[in-house]
Amino acid sequence: MSAGTFSIVGCDxxxxxxxxxxxxxxxxxxxxCAWAEAEVGAVATQSWIKASYGPDxxxxxxxxxxxxxxxxxxxxxxEGREQRQVGVVDGEGRTASHTGAACLGWAGDRQGPSYAAQxxxxxxxxxxxxxxxxxxATVSVPLAERLLAGLTxxxxxxxxxxxxxxxxxxxxxxxxxxxxxxxxxxLRVDDHFEPIAELRRLYELHQLYFGSTPExxxxxxxxxxxxxxxxxxxxxxxxTGDLARDFDTWAGVExxxxxxxxxxxxxxxxxxxxRNNDEGRGAR
Length: 284
Known about the structure:
Blueprint: E1 5-12, E2 17-24, H1 29-33, E3 34-37, E4 41-46, H2 53-62, H3 67-76, E5 85-90, E6 95-99, E7 108-112, E8 115-119, H4 125-137, H5 143-156, E9 166-172, E10 183-189, H6 195-210, E11 219-220, H7 223-236, H8 243-253, E12 265-266, H9 268-283
Helix pairs in contact: 2-3, 4-5, 5-6, 7-8, 7-9
């Protein structure tokens, strides 16, 4: 199946994060294109997608192959290699790309420090340039935000010449996700008229529920704030009289439990959510 697509695989070795971002006029492209494993690497497979490149590539990387070596082995075993487009980043930040001669234009790839970007059926090379340049220019921010910024810039520069439909973002870090999972971010927009904008919206929700606020910004729960929290919990229906238990229960219902560590200090994001909950309840 042919998929005009632009994607980027990348890593942040300081944060120990690896990831993929992809967009395409292709239903649910993230289900087939985006592959990543913590401390191993990431693979993007597109253009007459051969989905097995994802798990097979990660297995080769896990066995010790470099990005170049893993890609060479994948291509050597594939008679359809000239129709394929692949990007790989390994556990040491080395990268490799392949754009087969039969990929539909505009098609090409670009590599740089810790990233490989690739695209086919694009409006022009400007799409890929914007993707790569944006990733390079945003080195100070978390990997997920760099990848998402790259997709946004690439779409603004032209994107898939057939239009928009789907996008995905996947980032892994050992133990960095919910409950200690290795999946830090795994978001897909399978069918939408503006999938990258929708992916951004989902990422903002993800950060609300599963992001983290530096501990130095947490607020001490003094007498005044304790009374406020108690009052809001009572109005929201959490009124057993045990403040810590009521707070934990409310946070769990609101999917904010990863942002709660007792009731002596409070994450300002959680406090804002509680205030919105309470004030919104009163407005209904």
